Structure formats: structure tokens, C-alpha cells
Amino acid sequence: MFAELWKTFTDALEDLGSVVHFLFRLVGNSPPALLRFNLISQQIFNSGALSLVIIMLSGLFVGMVLGLQGFQLLQRFGSGESLGTAVAIGLVKELGPVVTALLFAGRAGTALASELGLMRATDQISAMEMMAVDPIQRVVVPRFLGGVIAMPLLAAIFSVIGIYGAQLVGVQIMGVDAGSFWSQMRSAVSLTDVTEGIVKSLAFGVACSLIAVYQGYYATPTAEGVGRATTRTVVTSAVVILFLDYLITAAFL
Amino acid sequence: MSKSRTLNLGTGSFVVLGFAALFFLTTQTTSHGLAVFGPPRYEITAKFDNIGDLKVGAPVSMSGVEVGRVAKIDFDSNDYKAIVLLRLNARYNKIPVDSDASIYTQGLLGGKFIGLTAGGADTYLKDKGKIDFTQSAFVLENLIGQVLANFTKSKADAQASGAADTKPEKAK
């Protein structure tokens, strides 16, 4: 039993090591890939612009729910006016980056992983290698960078839509004063809060894209292997996002 | 060709939207505003014995109107006082030299802010000028401490006076 535990532990370490190694390869290949910006721009479109609908809809509803719940809770203490503060801080620091990253892993991460996995399964990657085209530079790095660039932008859009959703519910339906909603938010939210959100979404962007690309690139070249790579992408991303979230929150305290 | 055009258009609009959102978050949800293009400033300093929990970014008001913000808080180790740098909008640069600055509390348990009360002098504070008359923050613990001290003192006095039977003194 100890031997099994030990093996699980060393396997996990080995996985972590190869992910880190892969990250270094990607970073090393990034400068030449940046020169071919068309490829990256296409990937920003794929993982960013195509995720907009789900991000905006979720942002709207998360904001509206926060508006309702926050108002009910704050009203008990007679401070319904600070709804704007509560919603903005919650969205900008925490919910915006985390929910966006989870949705991003589900929407864009799976697409990346299955696309690369299928390329692997149908020998497209080997074909590129044979034609002396570096698949890392041509295929993997643009996808990785596209995700890294798209993620903070998506998180910012999510937060803004969420704040407007909360304003919709709080001000239009529940009758909080619009002036105090915005002015209390402005006086309580500091630039560090926004920076924390941006740092988080950047870190999540790197983590999500890296995991998706890694799982896809090293997928077992079978139908089952591609399926498993996709599942693993979502599971690992979710855990890593929440873990990083705790770390970054603690670092900013 | 037209396909790549729509694609670039989509990417472009997405990036513009994303940066617009970032811009909104940094300027509209925070009090930071457009610091780079902000109005011209006018800075004055004030020394306080105790600033309580005054924070950087707290409002500075005159007659209840917000005229600026607390830009920096520092400690002077020569005379053991807090130095507060107030950054005011340059529109409000006619502050008499004998004005006084006090630290007030917003609401019952709200944050602290600085209130300026204009003095009567004809000369005005220059940029980087210093306010001489200040009043420290009202610290709840000190007040409770004083009340308790008064209370025990008056009790002791009452007992002493009861024993010695001299002038009976009422507690304040």
C-alpha cells in the first residue's frame, strides 16, 4: 500500500515536472512566434471573442444574483446603500477572475485540448515534424499566447457586465439610490483591488492555457485518449485555478 | 481574404472591448480617476498628534464639499507626529494660512476624513504649505479610558469624602 502511495506521489511530481518543462519550452518559443502575429490573433479570436457570449451572459446573471443576495443581506444591517461596494469588490477581486477562468477552461480549454489531441491522433503533428516545421512554434505557442492574452480581457468584461447587472437589480428593482451605489463603490474600491483582479486573471490565463495545451499535445493518440485529455483539462484547471486563487489572495493581503 | 478580414475584425473588436472594460474598472469603479490627466494639484501638509485610522485616499472636505484627498501619510520621528499630505484640486487654492484641519468620522462607525475650516487671514497657503492648527482624531478607546478613569476617581473621591465627611463632590 505504501508502495502504491509512493508511486502516485512520484507520478504526480513527474507530471508537474514535465508541465514546468513544457512551460519553459513554450516561453522560449514565444519571441519567434510573436513575429507571426496573425496566428496569435486567430487564436485570440478562437478563445477570446468566441467565449464572449457565455462570459457576458454569465457575468450578467452573476451580477444580478449578487445584487439580489447582497441587497437582502445588507438591508438587514440597514446599509443597502453599500451594495455597490460589496458587488464591485466581490466581482473585481474574486468572482470575475475565478468564474471567468472556470468558464474559460470549459469553453476554450476543452476546445484547445481536443483540437491538439486530434491533431496528435491524426498524425498531423508528426507530419509537421517531418516537414521540419516545429509544431510547438507553429501550433502550440499561438494557442497558448492567445489564451493568455484573452483571459484578462474576458475577466474585465465579466466584471463590468456583472457590476451593471447588479446595478440593474439593485437600483432599478430594489430601489437603491444610483448615486450612492456608484459613489460608495468609488470611494471603497482601490486600485490595488483592480490590480489584484488583473494579476489573478493573468495567472489563471497562463495556468488554463498551459494545462489545455499540455493535455492536448501529450494526449494518447486514440479517440479515448482525446476524450480523457479533455476531461483532465477541465478537472486540473478547476483545481489549479482555485489553488492559485488562494495563493494570490494571500499574497495581496 | 474576406474571411481573414472578418476574423481580424472580430479579434480587434474583442481586444478593444476588453481594454475598454479594463479602463472602466480602473477609472470608474475606483476613486483613482484619470490620475495622469487629472486636474492641477495643490498640496499642503498638516501635522497631527494622532490620526486614528485615517487612510491614504480619504477625502478632504471644506464646508462638507470634497476638495481633495489624503495623498500620503508619514511619521516624523523628530517630534513624534504624523505628517499628512493633502492633495487638493488647484481650484481651491485660496486657503487662509490660519485655517485648521481636524480629523472627523463619517457616520457613527465610518472611515475618517479631514475637514478644513477656513481661518480669517488675508494671506493664503502656498503650494507645499503647512497647516499649523490641527486637531487629532477622536479615538474611542481614549474616550472610554477617560470616562472610566473619571468614574473610578469620582467613586474614590466620594468614598474619601464620605469617610472624612468633607465637601461632597458630584461626579461629572
Descriptive notes:
- The complex is a heterodimer of chains A (253) and B (172).
- Chain A has 253 residues and is mainly alpha-helical.
- Chain A has one domain.
- Chain A has nine helices and no strands.
- Chain A has helices at residues 2-35, 37-47, 52-76, 83-121, 124-130, 135-173, 178-188, 191-217, 223-252.
- In chain A, α4 packs antiparallel against α6, α4 (83-121) packs across α7 (178-188) and α8 (191-217) packs antiparallel against α9.
- Chain A is elongated.
- Chain B is of the alpha/beta class.
- Chain B has three domains: 1-38; 41-138; 140-172.
- In chain B, strands 7-1-4-3-2-6-5-8 form an eight-stranded mixed β-sheet, with no helix packed on it.
- The termini of chain B are far apart.
- The model of chain B has no long low-confidence stretch (mean pLDDT 80).
- Chain A binds chain B through residues 38, 41-42, 44-45, 48-49, 52, 88, 92, 149-150, 152-154, 156-157, 159-160, 163, 185-187, 189-191, 193-194, 197-198, and chain B through 4, 7-8, 10-11, 13-15, 17-19, 21-22, 24-26, 28-32, 57, 59.
Outline of the structure:
The complex is a heterodimer of chains A (253) and B (172). With 253 residues, chain A is mainly alpha-helical.
Total domain modules of chain B: 3
Ends distance of chain B: 89 Å
Q: Report the portion of residues of chain B in β strands.
A: 25-35%
Percentage of residues assigned to helices of chain B: 25-40%
Cα distance spanning the termini of chain A: 41 Å
Mean pLDDT of chain A: 90
Total number of helices of chain A: 9
> What oligomeric assembly is this protein in?
heterodimer
Features:
heterodimer; A: 253 residues; mainly alpha; B: 172 residues; alpha/beta; 3 domains; eight-stranded mixed sheet; 2 helices; 30% helix
